[in-house]
Design a protein that fits this description.
Elements: E1 2-3, H1 11-17, H2 26-30, H3 39-46, E2 51-59, E3 62-71, E4 76-84, H4 90-110
Antiparallel strand pairs: 1-2, 2-3, 3-4
């Protein structure tokens, strides 16, 4: 399977619409794609508390979306979820938004300091 980063462009807008998080602009974050820059440096430059990594993968049976929440201070993935092709488009975007914002809230409460 090969990732298709353009297929998930809409997700940041859905996160913002939720009213639960703010999101750095795609223009600002895109400059780090494929560059060897650490999570802490990216988060500091974007002035964000967490990073979200995502990818869309296509194979013969269907599509899979992978979303990961990264704590840049620890440089660790602290939450991840895979979504299979059952829900696509707005339904999938809504599920990802709910799951991701819930994960951020939960991790913020339980975060090691």
């Amino acid at each position: 399977m090969t990732p298709d980063p353009d297929a998930i462009r809409q997700q940041p807008s859905e996160l913002v619409k939720s009213g639960r998080v703010s999101v750095a602009s795609r223009t600002s974050s895109a400059q780090y794609a494929g560059r060897p820059v650490g999570a802490a440096a990216i988060a500091a430059a974007l002035d964000v508390e967490y990073l979200i990594e995502a990818g869309v993968y296509f194979d013969a049976p269907g599509t899979r979306v992978v979303v990961r929440l990264v704590d840049p201070e620890l440089d660790r993935k602290v939450w991840a979820r895979e979504y299979d092709s059952g829900a696509i488009g707005q339904q999938l975007a809504s599920r990802i938004t709910t799951d991701t914002t819930d994960a951020i809230a939960r991790y913020t409460r339980e975060r090691p300091r």
